[in-house]
Write a structure and sequence with these properties.
This protein has about 425 residues and is mainly alpha-helical. Among the domains are: about 1-115, 434 Repressor (Amino-terminal Domain), CATH 1.10.260.40; about 115-200, no CATH class; about 200-300, Alpha Horseshoe (Serine Threonine Protein Phosphatase 5, Tetratricopeptide repeat). The protein contains 22 helices and no strands. Helix 7 (about 115-135) runs antiparallel to helix 8 (about 135-155), helix 14 (about 260-275) runs antiparallel to helix 15 and helix 18 packs antiparallel against helix 19 (about 360-375). The radius of gyration is 24 Å and the shape is globular. The termini are far apart.
């Protein structure tokens, strides 16, 4: 087929991007004092590095990540400022570098152009991933659903499976854990039946299943999935291994093995920081703060939560900022700073509600209730417990609902309302 003017423009843009990336690779390599052969290591050749640096060949995302790790810089170091006109390669590179907002903008721009079904399916899948990374559940579901439909029609089973993974992720973000679990179980059966997707795809499925079980309060099942994935984690790059360790740390904390949670969490944090993943570092700092809070190291908990707070505020991410505010409320409550705890819990609740983070909203209400109880306001505490319990029933969080009902029952018992306490205890016993 003859090449169109649009096709020629895309080739020119990708050639220019390859040249710019090559120049930056060379500059960083020289500053690091490495030869092309040293940078190539055992995976690539000197000739390949030379071709990259001269813009003769286009770098793959795998190669770019490998080179970035060899030079101790994030992949984004090789990318310039966002351009007003996007090429597919540049958008994919931004996704690989963890620049989710920029990648999403780029994919949206590409979708506005005239592209064939195969390219559209790939672009939609990239948009689904970028949206998922930014916790945009509905946008993830919308993009992934269309991507699945297109890949199914094209008969590209491996690509369809990957798009289904992001569809499950979107369902999870939209608090539809049941549908996400069904999708992931189906994918796991396909992979174990011989479907080849990506080298670490089974690992990702097991980690995702663990996250769903953890949210549903099935912490033992979550840990079992992660332990099953342990043998598959050895060949992961630093960022993905850090993500695995992060999920493992959460499961250890929720099953009560706090020493393991802190040990594994620190390992994951070191890997995130080493790969330049500052936002992801903040997520694990927040979870580590919870682990340190549980063992009574309040100073360390406050320090880690404070660092996470600064990063989420800098990133302008209200969803995650709500989570760390809730952590800070718990730390303040443990320190006896009741007014501070009430204030932080209130702010966490408002941000969580505005950003659609219902799980954090529920946790903030529960923390606020405990703070109000310590402040000597049982009426306000009961109101917060009632709101938290209603939200737990709505989102389907049985473990959290049992916990909330138990604390509420204690409040009623303290007030002499033994019948009311019994009713709540009985309800908690029936929650499954």
């Amino acid at each position: 087929m003859p090449r169109t003017r649009s096709d020629t423009r895309d080739v020119d843009l990708e050639t220019e991007l390859a040249r710019r990336i090559g120049e930056r690779i060379r500059d960083v390599r020289l500053r690091a004092g490495l030869t092309q052969q040293q940078l190539a290591g055992e995976r690539y050749t000197k000739a390949y590095i030379s071709a990259l640096e001269h813009g003769i060949t286009r770098p793959s995302m795998v190669a770019l990540t490998y080179i970035a790790e060899r030079l101790s810089v994030p992949p984004s170091a090789f990318l310039g400022e966002p351009q007003p006109v996007w090429s597919r390669l540049e958008v994919d590179m931004r996704l690989a570098a963890g620049e989710w907002a920029g990648a999403a903008d780029g994919y949206q721009a590409l979708l506005a152009e005239s592209i064939d079904d195969a390219t559209r399916a790939e672009v939609l899948r990239g948009l689904a991933e970028a949206s998922a990374r930014m916790d945009r559940g509905r946008a993830t579901v919308a993009a992934a659903s269309e991507s699945v439909r297109l890949f199914t029609g094209l008969g590209r089973k491996a690509d369809e499976a990957l798009a289904r993974y992001w569809l499950a992720y979107g369902m999870y973000l939209s608090d539809n854990e049941a549908e996400a679990r069904v999708l992931l179980n189906g994918l796991l059966e396909q992979v174990r039946g011989g479907l080849r997707v990506e080298p670490d795809f089974e690992m990702r499925l097991l980690t995702a299943m663990a996250a769903i079980e953890s949210r549903l309060g099935e912490h033992g099942r979550a840990l079992a999935f992660l332990e099953e994935a342990r043998g598959l984690s050895d060949d992961l790059d630093d960022r993905r291994r850090a993500n695995y360790l992060f999920n493992l740390a959460i499961s250890y904390r929720e099953t009560g093995d706090l020493e393991a949670a802190i040990r594994v969490g620190q390992q994951g944090l070191a890997l995130y920081r080493g790969s330049g993943a500052t936002f992801e570092s903040a997520t694990i700092e927040n979870d580590l703060a919870m682990a340190y809070l549980a063992v009574g190291n309040l100073d360390r908990a406050a320090e880690l939560a404070g660092e996470a707070h600064e990063e989420f505020e800098r990133a302008g991410d209200d969803r995650f900022l709500a989570a760390v505010l809730e952590t800070e409320a718990q730390v303040a409550l443990a320190q006896g700073q009741i007014e501070e705890a009430v204030d932080r819990a209130h702010k966490a609740r408002e941000l969580a509600r505005a950003s659609g983070n219902r799980l954090v909203e529920m946790a903030a209400l529960s923390t606020a209730a405990r703070a109000e109880r310590q402040r000597g306001d049982p009426v306000a505490a009961a109101d917060r417990f009632a709101e938290a319990a209603a939200l737990a029933r709505e989102v389907g969080a049985p473990a959290r609902l049992r916990e909330i009902l138990g604390a509420w029952a204690e409040l009623r018992a303290d007030a002499g309302d033994y019948r009311g306490a019994y009713e709540l205890t009985a309800e908690a016993a029936l929650v499954k």
